[in-house]
Amino acid sequence: MRNTWLKLTDARLRASLAALEAGGRAAGDMAAAPELAAGLMRPARAQLSAAIRSGPRASLEAAYAAEDFSARLEKVFSDMALLSLRPDAAALEALGHLQRACEAAGGLLSPSARNRAAGLIRAHCASGRRGLALASASEAGEGPDFPRKLKFSSIYSGLDETLDALERCAEALFRI
């Protein structure tokens, strides 16, 4: 009941959750076609921008973190499109963790499910970051494929920052 009440009465909260859900759903489509990132993320970002100007102060931190998450996720895929890259195995694994973390975000408002949801989100974000760190370490160093390694290094760091923003948003939602 609390979950429904908060979503009905707080536009920032509703927009924050919608942005996380949209990012999770769109991640697979953007992985297949990174050039679609701006179009797929634009509605959630527009809803967030409008919602930030209204609503109770308690949800402002969550809205800003959700906005950061959406912008970073869009940038990762825009960079992939610009560099003519498709996600590699490490990036796909991190995106899978990101999607599962986004799916769990809805439980953060329910008193009975919030601890489990927060734990799942932290675990998925940590697993995604761990995989990216391992991939970055294995890609380190110069060699014949140095330009590709450099490109993926920036993609990995962008995904890492996206997971951080997701975790910050989840923490802010948990505190509401």
Question: What labels would you give this structure?
Answer:
0% strand, 176 residues, mainly alpha
- SSE pattern, N- to C-terminal: HHHHHHH
| Main pleated sheet | none
Estimated radius of gyration? 16 Å
Helix coverage percent: over 70%
**CA(first)-CA(last) distance:** 15 Å
Number of helices, where a helix is a run of at least 4 consecutive DSSP H or I residues? 7
Strand percentage, roughly?
under 5%
Helix-strand makeup class: mainly alpha
Principal-axes geometry comes out as globular
The total beta strand count reads: 0
Mean pLDDT: 88
Low-confidence stretches: none
Quaternary organisation: single chain
Descriptive report:
- The chain has 176 residues and is mainly α.
- The chain has seven helices and no strands.
- It has helices spanning 2-9, 11-32, 37-52, 60-82, 89-104, 114-139, 146-175.
- Helix 6 runs antiparallel to helix 7 (146-175).
- It is globular.
- The two termini are 15 Å apart.
